[in-house]
Amino acid sequence: MKNKTLGEFIIDNQNDFPGSTGELSKILSSIRLAAKLVSHETNKAGLAKHILGAAGTENIQGEQQQKLDVYADHQFIEALKAREVVCGIGSEENDDFVSFDEEKCKKGKYVVLMDPLDGSSNIDVKVSIGTIFSVFERCSAIGNPAELKDFLQKGVKQVAAGYVIYGSSTMLVYSTGNGVNGFTFDPSIGVFFLSHPNMKFPSSGSIYSMNEGNLNHCSAEIQDYISFCKGNNTATKKPYTARYIGSLVADFHRNLIKGGIYLYPSTTTAPNGKLRLLYECSPLAFLAEQAGGMAISDKGRVLDIQPEELHQRVPFYIGSKEMVKELEVFLQGGN
Ligand code: AHM
Ligand code: MG
Q1: Is 205 a pocket residue for ligand 1 (Cβ < 6 Å)?
Q2: What is the pLDDT of residues 201-259, one digit of tens each?
Q3: Would you identify the CATH topology of the domain 207-331?
Q4: Which fold has domain 6-196?
Q5: How close is the Cα of 123 to the center of ligand 1, in Å?
Q6: Which of 118, 127, 131, 263 to mutate to test the pocket of ligand 1 (most atoms within 8 A of CB)?
Q7: Between 248-258 and 282-290, two packed helices, what is the crossing angle to 10 degrees?
Q8: Cα 115 to ligand 2 centre (Å)
Q9: Which sequence spans correspond to the domains of the chain?
């Protein structure tokens, strides 16, 4: 007998919130549907020419869009629009937020932010990639089109966040603020099953994940911390293990299960780092805290940052609580 399905879990969870209207459940169901479609396409990306390689366009960040990026963006937007509970969506792939102006959508009380296909440079080389999503209640008036202010909310106000990892199997991991649960996809019957209930970060670990190619362009504090990770400062002289996939979702997922820290600091050429606050850092920070981990930027807790623009970038450090605290001492110049 298999575990509970994601569909059953969503309904059970909805019943835990008295007065719930089922709208958030519909959002989660539409993400589940789009994730299945993207998972299916991901698995045949080597065979189906229409899905492999560059789309020949750039996103607002000047990055090459891959065909699978564009496909995933379309699937998530269409699935969310069809449920008529979301009034707009902000995505890495679109310069501006998309407002759903159908009458029923305008009555939706939620907005969604997402990176539909994260780690897209890994698509063509068969390495794990992911989807990241974040859900807020809108702050503009219900019945009107979505406004920018609906998307520029502090991470602490998220009502749900999660990711899908398309790896050796596909998993959907999410939280509605009541712990973190993971569901593994069984492609033979097209169903997600609860496989990782109540996920928790180990309080510490021995993995650090960073693109060390950038190290010479990082601050002295980050250089000292990486030296510490290599055992040069610790009493034991025992190094941490370096693991870097280059897909944020995959690096985060591994560290969540095994214990570790992920870093994307500022560099001389990228003073705010690379990762985007609203649809990469903030949702993972929400999950990390829900799982007993920690997420900070150079000036403190990620979930407390007031966003100023849709595609804002921030330096990002996330993982097991003790390891992030250890890093924090370096960032504050205490080492
Ligand atoms: P993307 O959203 O364009 O895929 O970029 C984000 C990705 C993250 O998944 C990953 O952690 C990071 O970029 C890797 O960057 P780098 O190649 O600079 O190490
Ligand atoms: Mg991304």
Answers
A1: no
A2: 999 999 999 999 999 999 999 999 999 999 876 667 789 999 999 999 999 999 999 99
A3: D-Maltodextrin-Binding Protein; domain 2 (3.40.190)
A4: Fructose-1,6-Bisphosphatase; Chain A, domain 1 (3.30.540)
A5: 12
A6: 118
A7: 10
A8: 5
A9: 6-196, 207-331
- The CA-atom distances, in angstroms, between 303 and each of 17, 110, 306 are 23, 19, 8
Using alpha carbons, select from 113, 98, 120 the residue that is nearest to residue 51.
Answer: 120
Q: pLDDT tens digit string along 166-191?
A: 999 999 999 999 999 999 999 999 99
Identify the CA nearest to 122 among candidates 33, 226, 45, 203.
45
176-184 long-range contacts (CB < 8 A, ≥24 apart) are 176/13, 176/24, 177/286, 177/290, 178/13, 178/16, 178/290, 179/290, 179/291, 180/287, 180/290, 180/291, 181/9, 183/5, 183/6, 183/9
* Cβ count within 10 A of residue 119: 21
What 3-state DSSP class applies to 35?
helix
Task: Kindly give the distance from the C-alpha atom of residue 119 to the centroid of ligand 1, in angstroms, as a whole number.
Answer: 5
Tell me the residue length of the chain: 335
Would you say the CB of residue 130 lies under 6 angstroms from ligand 1? no
Residues, CB within 5 angstroms of ligand 2 (ion): 115, 118
**What is each CA distance from 83 to 24, 40, 175, 186, 188, in whole angstroms?**
10, 21, 20, 24, 26
* Ligand 1 pocket check for 120: Cβ under 6 Å: yes
Report if pTM > 0.90. yes
Ligand 1 neighbour 303 (Cβ under 6 A): no
Strand partners for 196: 182
* Residue 121 Cα: closest atom of ligand 1: 4
